[in-house]
Amino acid sequence: MISSLHRPTLAKVDLSAISSNIKQIQDHVPQSVKTFAVVKANAYGHGAVAVASHTQRLVDGFCVSNIDEGIELRQAGIRKPILVLGVVLPGEVPLVRDYRLTLTIASLEWLELAQAKPLDLSNLLVHIAVDSGMGRIGVRSLAEANDLIAGLRQAGCQVKGIFTHFATADEADDRKFQEQLAFFKELVAGLDYCPELVHASNSATSLWHSEGIFNALRLGLVIYGLNPSGQELSLPYKIKPALSLETALVHVKKVPAGADVGYGATYTSSQEEWIGTLPLGYADGWTRDMQGFDVLVAGQRCPIVGRVSMDQITIRLPQSYPLGTKVTLIGKNGDQLISATDVAQQRGTINYEVLCLLSDRVPREYK
Ligand SMILES: *Cc1c(COP(=O)(O)O)cnc(C)c1O
C-alpha cells in the first residue's frame, strides 16, 4: 500500500526514545548479556529499517519473523546477525544463505526433509527452538534436541544458539513460567553440545524475571516504550513510548439537535453540537470498535461519535476549531495523554496489536 503523504494523518516515531529504552534495559542486566532487538512486523509498526539503522550500534543483532523481513534489513545495509524467529521451509535455504540470515530450526523432521532434497546446509547459521510449553514451535525433548544438533553439525551447519519462548512471562501468576523455565534449564544442562547463545527472554522476562535471561535478550515491545503486560504488572523502571499518532480537523460544522452522523445513523445529536471530521479510518488501523472512545483536541478529550468509516471518523467538539487543528489519537496533547495501552483496553485487545495494525497508509515521520 502506498503511504498517503498529503493528509495530516501521520505516526511520529521518536527513535531516540527507542535507543534510550534499549540502554535502560541493558543497564538492568549483567553486561555480558547480548541484546537482540525484535523488529518483526515492521518493528511493531515503527518502521523496521529506520529502527534497525538507528539502533544497530547498540545491539548484537535483530530478530524478524520471516525471511522477507530479514532481506529488507540486509538490502538497507544492516550487517548485524538477523535471526528469523519463525520456521522457514527447507526450500528457501539458498535465499537464507545469500542474505546471511540465521534460521530457527524447530524439528528433526525439518532436517530430514532438507537432507532428502538434498540441500547443501554447510555453514548455514542456525538456532534451535525448544518448545518448553508455549506449544507453537520447537523440539519437545532432550533426545530430539541432541539428535537435531548432532545432525545439523554433521551437515555442516553452524549451530549458534538455542532458545525457548515463555507463554506467561507478562502475568502476575508465575507458575507456568516456572515450569517452562525448569524444563528449559534441564534440557540445556543435558545437551551434548551447548551452542554459544542460550536465550529465553522476551520483554516481559527481561523486566520481571531475571532468572530467565541466560545470556541473550530478545527485546520487542519494551524497546518501543510500552508495558508488555498492559496494566497487570507495573514497570520496574521508566521507559518512554516512541510512537504517537496524529491527524487534524479537515471539516467542522454545527449541527442542530436530531442530526444523524455516519453509516447506520448510529449517532444522533441530542442538542446543537459541533462535529469535526478526521481523515483516517479502519483502513489506517483505526478499527470500528474505536467508536465511543476519545481523541485529544486542544488538550481536551473529545468522543468519536458515529461509526468509524474506512477513511474518516467524526468527533464531537466542545466548540468550533479551525481546519488544520491538530488532533492526537495516540500520545500527548496539552495535559492529556492517550496511550496505545488505553486504546487496546477500549478494543479488548493488547497494545502490541494496536501498533502492528497501523497500516502502511499512515506515513511514519522520524525524529
Ligand atoms: C515476538 C517475539 C519476541 C518479542 O516479544 P516481546 O514481548 O515483544 O518482547 C521474542 N521472542 C519470540 C520468539 C517472539 O516471537
UniProtKB/TrEMBL annotation:
Name this polypeptide is given: Alanine racemase
Active site: 40 (proton acceptor), 263 (proton acceptor)
Gene Ontology CC annotations of this record: cytosol
Biological process terms in GO annotation: D-alanine biosynthetic process; peptidoglycan biosynthetic process
List of residues binding substrate: 136, 310
Pathways involved: Amino-acid biosynthesis; D-alanine biosynthesis; D-alanine from L-alanine: step 1/1
Pfam families referenced in this protein's UniProt entry, alphabetically: Ala_racemase_C, Ala_racemase_N
Organism: Streptococcus downei MFe28
